[in-house]
Amino acid sequence: MAAKPVIGVLALQGAFAEHEDYLRRAGALAVEVRRPDQLEELDGLILPGGESTTIGKLLRRFGFEEPLRRFDRPIWGTCAGMILLSREIRGGLPDQLALDRIDLRVTRNAFGRQADSFTAPLELSNLAEPIPAVFIRAPLAEPLSDRVEVLAEVDGQVAAARQANVWVSSFHPELSGDLRLHKSFVATCRSRSQGHKFQAGGQQA
Ligand code: GLN
Questions:
Q1: Is residue 1 one of the residues assigned to a domain?
Q2: Among 156, 152, 142, which Cα is nearest to 104's?
Q3: Whole-angstrom distance, CA of residue 179 vs CA of residue 43
Q4: Is 21 part of a structural domain of the chain?
Q5: Domain assignment present for 185
Q6: 199 C-alpha to center of ligand 1: Å?
């Protein structure tokens, strides 16, 4: 059987434990990431939901900013993680960290107080059936270039998207009771890790 891909979950603040559980059930080895040097060993990384201002401050304090701008393996930001990966942030602090890994202008807390948290079936263009999407003080975004592949929209704004190997979703897939997105991310990380190992093997031969 193929080796399991090693996928990190940034574990500085927020909903990281649930992502680890889903990743394991989806066939990956999940690792809690708290130091930038851990990024080297990973086949992929998830930035979880939580509080994007707090996570951004901790990322700067622990020296993650440049390594995450350069990280070349699949990376998936959910909710606060989506905010962190975007190019521009509306409703953030003046110096809030935006890693500029996807061409999105994201609006924090886009649903306002009336609809702070809710679950709704959401159709994604890469899934056959809708996913029960859990939105918790969720952001929504607008694309800033046609490099962004929009996977799902709510009220005409982006709720899930991809750009090359950067994935974002404004909801919490790790609370959905549905493993399909994690399985799909694990498969993406696995093909990358196998390509890598194959190359390494080829060099040795
Ligand atoms: N509203 C939070 C923020 O702006 C994100 C909420 C979440 O990750 N569930 O950081």
A1: no
A2: 142
A3: 19
A4: yes
A5: yes
A6: 39
Q: Measured in angstroms, how far is the CA atom of residue 35 from the centroid of ligand 1? A: 22
Q: Identify the residue whose C-alpha is closest to ligand 1 atom 8.
A: 49
- Ligand 1 test: best mutation among 55, 111, 118, 137, most atoms within 8 Å of CB? 137
Q: Which segments of the chain have a pLDDT < 50?
A: 201-205
Residues acting as catalytic residues: 79, 172, 174
- Phi and psi (nearest 5°) for 45? -150, 140
pLDDT digit string (tens) for 119-169? Answer: 999 999 999 999 999 999 999 999 999 999 999 999 999 999 999 999 999
Pocket of ligand 1, beta carbon within 6 A: 49-52, 79-80, 83, 108-109, 136-137
CATH for 30 = 3.40.50.880
DSSP 8-state secondary structure symbol assigned to residue 110: T
Supply the pLDDT for residue 202.
44
Number of domains present in the structure of the chain: 1
136: containing domain: 6-201
pTM, two decimals, is 0.93
Distance 202 CA to ligand 1 centre (A): 44
The alpha carbon of 10 is separated from its chain's Cα centroid by a whole number of angstroms, namely: 10
Q: Which residues pair with 31 in a beta bridge?
A: 8
pLDDT at 204: 38
